[in-house]
Amino acid sequence: MNNKNLSRRLEAVAQEVPSGAKILDIGTDHGYLPIHLVHVNKIKGAVASDVNHAPLQSAEEKINREQLHQKIETRFGNGLGVIVKDDAIDTVVIAGMGGSLITSILDEGKDALQYVETLILQPNVGAEVIRTWLLENGWTLTNEQILEEDKKVYEILTAEPGNGTAPYSDDIKKREKELFFGPYLMTNQSPAFTKKWQREKKQWESILAELKKAEKNEDVSKKKAVIMEKIKMTEEVIHL
């Protein structure tokens, strides 16, 4: 992967960025995303941040080498704490982390989020945790993507301020499935979506088989019940 030729995962993230945006790329790694977005004239500027010095230094070197320092500023720090109102950030990207870490970053940076118009979130795991956070914190899930790259399946969630319940059913049981699988992904079931949940179901079945061999106690019974419910939901959603 190079600056102008992104991975499929980051290319899908880039597609969600509004034209003319000023972005904060949290956990920018080597700065691939903001550099690409400037090269294709999609954004007016970016703040690229990371909590690790080495990748941030690599990003700085690339930005300076390509003379993009007037468009992209690098900052060392954690989450939304690296920006202030005058940065005029309207789009926040958090990609390549777990869902729980992403939601903790959003929780800790709620004050900064009041000026943000778009969230683009790409969890490696735990997308359902993010959907629940968006629902409970006044963000409308506006789009979802799912794709496979290098035998891994990634989900990309895009949201804007508004009615968090908008894409979800009023029926409690259906909403539970939508939060877990994704309301848009459930409706437009792609091969990557089906493959992901077939794989997950197989893993749960293996775990369940081992639990059935274990000594019976309350903890084991609870774990079995949770896994059996996940398997049941998966069969209902993707008709296995």
UniProtKB/TrEMBL annotation:
<protein>
    <submittedName>
        <fullName>tRNA (Adenine(22)-N(1))-methyltransferase TrmK</fullName>
    </submittedName>
</protein>
<dbReference type="GO" id="GO:0160105">
    <property type="term" value="F:tRNA (adenine(22)-N1)-methyltransferase activity"/>
</dbReference>
<dbReference type="Pfam" id="PF04816">
    <property type="entry name" value="TrmK"/>
</dbReference>
<keyword id="KW-0808">Transferase</keyword>
<dbReference type="InterPro" id="IPR006901">
    <property type="entry name" value="TrmK"/>
</dbReference>
<dbReference type="InterPro" id="IPR029063">
    <property type="entry name" value="SAM-dependent_MTases_sf"/>
</dbReference>
<dbReference type="GO" id="GO:0032259">
    <property type="term" value="P:methylation"/>
</dbReference>
<keyword id="KW-0489">Methyltransferase</keyword>
